[in-house]
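Dear Dr. H.,

I hope your travels went smoothly. While you were away I took the liberty of generating a structure for the chain from your last submission, since the lab meeting agenda had it listed for discussion. I wanted you to have the full record in hand beforehand rather than looking at slides cold. The sequence, exactly as received, is reproduced here:
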Amino acid sequence: MHSKAITALTLACALLAAPALTATPAAAAAKPNLRACYDGKCTFTFTKPVKFRVAKKYGLSGWVHVAKEWSDLFGTDVVAVWSGGSSAFGGEGTSGGINKLDFRVLSISATGATIRFTG
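The corresponding predicted structure, in token form, is as follows:
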């Protein structure tokens, strides 16, 4: 008889704890690994503006910045990529580049965007 009560109590505790475990979205815990972008070849999803460094062979000084922005010109969200005096913008499915660093915007959502740098 005690084993049924213990089993019921264990199950009730598990059910109460489950919502707390699932309340944290997985994407919030996963930050893009921007160190992998140093060689100019990486893919990542971002929800806030990010910055990272690339190898000197790309002719960029300082940080490469990536952000999702509203474009009045295109009337939609675009991904902006800039470093120093070089900048480029791309909508979903488009390609672009700054100096020798090329990229492709894979997707844009209400919360962020996914971009692939191809070197």
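Two observations you may find useful: The CA atoms of residues 59 and 99 lie 6 Å apart. The helical segments are 2-22, 26-29.

With kind regards,
E. W.
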